[in-house]
Design brief:
This protein folds into two domains: 11-82, Orthogonal Bundle (Arc Repressor Mutant, subunit A); 86-235, Tetracycline Repressor, domain 2, CATH 1.10.357.10. The protein is built from ten helices and no strands. The chain has helices at 28-42, 49-56, 60-63, 70-82, 95-112, 128-140, 148-178, 183-198, 204-212, 219-235. The longest helix has 31 residues, at 148-178. The chain is flat, with a radius of gyration of 23 Å. The protein starts with 27 loop residues before the first helix and ends with a helix. 21% of the residues are buried. Residues 48-67 bind DNA. This is TetR family transcriptional regulator.
């Protein structure tokens, strides 16, 4: 296949423009923007080399000259979205506040691009914007007296919390859209069944928990508490 490397390589180490020959018709940023637009509208499953090439107005084989593999396309997409963090010029000096702000910003970005939760791994973390984000995250942690290995763990755990919560939110919303009845009705039926089971006396701890708080779960509060507890753990080391 045209442009496909014989050995593994990182897309960022591959020159975007050859030293010789005609000027490329498309940039990586343009290709990534088209792929992101497709994923936002129709999901990751809709992203294919053929469709991206079609929207760019070029042949599929021509696209491989810019992006040798579909995995490379995913990396371009992930890094383009990482630019949306719009990092400040410098940290405030309050590492907890800075990391909390980064986490909330990451959650907003992943909600805006629901498919991103599927690309949140070290595999797609080598792009320029992703590296800038990691460097800034570590800069935020300068006041924290821990080895860099532990700081990297903290950043990874915060990102993991964000990814997990957003993935759950997305799955819940997608399931609700596919139900043949209103999601409120299903929730009502399920809660009635659960209440019946709890009132049987076989589950005293669950009964006590529901007596204490039977209202809807405050997912925003749960997210903030989970994040805060992780930060607490590293602050106390």
């Amino acid at each position: 296949m045209a442009g496909r490397p014989a050995e593994p390589e990182v897309i960022w180490s591959r020159p975007e423009r050859a030293a010789r020959g005609p000027r490329p018709s498309h940039t990586r940023a343009e290709i990534a923007a088209v792929a992101v637009r497709i994923a936002d509208a129709d999901g990751m499953e809709a992203v294919s080399m053929r469709r991206v090439a079609g929207e760019l107005g070029c042949g599929t084989m021509s696209l491989y000259n810019y992006v040798p593999r579909k995995e490379d396309l995913y990396e371009l997409m992930a890094d383009l979205v990482a630019e949306e963090h719009d990092l400040p010029e410098r940290p405030t000096g309050d590492w907890r506040a800075d990391l909390t702000a980064l986490a909330h910003r990451a959650r907003e970005i992943m909600r805006r691009h629901p498919w991103m939760s599927r690309l949140m791994s070290a595999t797609y973390g080598f792009g320029p914007n992703a590296i800038k984000y990691l460097e800034f995250s570590l800069w935020c942690l300068d006041p924290l007296d821990l080895p860099y290995g532990r700081k990297m763990e903290l950043v990874a755990m915060v990102n993991g919390i964000v990814t997990t919560y957003v993935a759950n939110e997305i799955q819940t919303a997608e399931r609700a859209r596919t139900l043949p009845w209103p999601p409120e009705r299903e929730h009502e039926i399920r809660m009635a069944y659960l209440s019946q089971q709890i009132s049987s006396g076989q589950y005293p701890r669950l009964a006590a928990a529901f007596m204490e708080d039977s209202g809807p779960i405050d997912m925003e509060g749960v997210f903030d508490r989970a994040l805060s507890r992780v930060l607490d753990g590293f602050e106390q080391e």
